[in-house]
Specification:
Chain A is an alpha+beta fold. Helix content of chain A is about 60%, strand content about 10%. The model of chain A has no long low-confidence stretch (mean pLDDT about 90). Chain B starts with a helix and ends with a helix. The model of chain B has no long low-confidence stretch (mean pLDDT about 90). Classes of the chains: A alpha+beta, B mainly alpha.
Amino acid sequence: MSRLSQAQLRRLTAIHGWSGITLGLLLYTVIATGTAAVFGGEIGRWSAGGIRAADPLEVPIDARIRAAATQVDPSHLDDIAIWAGEGRDIYAFFHTQAENPGTGAPDDLGTILRLDATSGEVFERNEGFIWDQPAAWDGSALRRFLVDLHVQLYMPTPWGLIVTGILGLAMMAAVISGLLMHRHLLRDLFVAERPGWRLVSARDRHVLAASWSLPFAFVLAFTGSFLSFASTVGFPLLASIAFGGDDEAMSAALFEPPVAEDATPAPLADLDAILADSRARAPGHVTFVEIARFGRADARVHVWHDPAAGGVLYVTNLYDGAAGTFLGRQPQVGAAPSVGGTLYGLMYPLHFGHFAGIASRIVWGALGVALCFVTLSGLHLWTRRRAGAAVWDGFARSVDIVAWGLPLAMLAAAWGFLLSVPAADPFVWTPRSFVAGAAAAIIVGIAAPDRGSLLPRYRRLLGMACLGLPILRLAAGGMSWADAILHRQPDVLTVDILLLLAGIWFLRRRRRAGRLALEAAE
Amino acid sequence: MTARHTGAFVAARRIGGALGGVIVAYPRAARWFLAGPAALLASLATMAAMPLWLPAGAGGVDDIVLAVVLTPLLWAVPFFYACLEPELPRCAAMLAGLTLGQALLVAVAMG
């Protein structure tokens, strides 16, 4: 397939190898945590969810929002954001814009209430610059930690986003160079592993997994680097050039259709009727509701829906807040549908993989696991070709430690979360437990006499960590299996069963340990 | 063409010739530079200038949104071009022309 010269192929091989070697371990971390984040909803429900008969945004919420609006500072009624919690709860964030003294930039200042959507009982109330307080707007510290680790490697903003953006570009460099290097792409899609656990067998495995996951890897790398760089580099740069540095003017031009200002007091139309009408026009689940200028004649209600069956893009319906009339379907960006708006809208569902519900997320999760394998097998190939050199032997062991230590540390974070829920702050103890788990994995990896003995040790630890989690969740007051079955809460039961199966699999599958020992000795 | 223009043209040719000599003398370092900082600068300059030459489209936002959405490609194209182009002086001229042209547009628009 390739018509490149030998020199060009050598350069592509160098790009492919070195982009993996220098950033491969961080890339593996981002991919593995991203694979977990694809199931963020399930992880949130498993770790912090309560019993619910229906999605909280599917039950009547009009009276709840009106009652809550009387309990907040009137200046916070500029904008109300509403989304579902993990149980029967909804979050209602009443806010306005103000300069955040912590960052010096405009930010959302207001009051956030966590309410029972059914009874209206207020579970929690927080005020201030809410996005600085994750505990105020996310019920699951475990899900929040895993997502933060994926999005910005738990580093401060914007540096973490810039690092993950660079990782996305490195992944794209590896994908494109891998594609150009392929001489027999179609044949490689069906390559059979050569027997004997030799170097060529490892190469066959790498090529097979990489060939099948090539389009997916490109999509993830492209959308991931876009998501990282858009807010840190792209929009600020373009705001300074096209809008004289006025971020708010650019945001208004892109995301907020112009509305003739009318501050005349006017009650909000029936929110439940608006949501019912929106559901009739867009069959996907309601995921987010925004009420702009509550209590005024120029109020607007945006209703976001998951993509409908057969669609990929999110749907946003726009309503006149005072009259309750449907104003039309709101494009993702701009005043009318456009090429840029469609491409922008595609970035999110293609990265998160939730455009077709649980089915597409399972596919995305499986491809994420395949990409983890591609990254690690590529690193192993590189180190096996250089076996015998002290530096590369040490690096090979580091690859093993990170490969097995990362899932162990993620499980340790879950343990820390569940242990701290009854008596301490999970938003503090979840990341600390991750660090403790990572430190334990590193100690185990360094203490092992050789690489061959690493795998059985990690398998035992992973097996025990998986098996213990459902028990710990129940002991920490989580939903019982009986309640989960009785009230049809499949998330909790499914995650528990998958953890138990994974635990048994890790403890029973020792055969490959011998195979790794052989590779190490080769 | 005035004498001043002719002088600038001669000076530019001289600088270009000297840079071409350096590139030919140190091809590996030159390719590193072109695929690294030069490709990055070219992509940033293109992104910054796109709102100035790209039509806004039906939604009135394509000039901004496409510049952001296409960020990864804006980097990948000059990066792989710098990696694969056999003639390094030509690659340097292309990237320099692209970067300076776009930067000039931005400078004029902001000036």
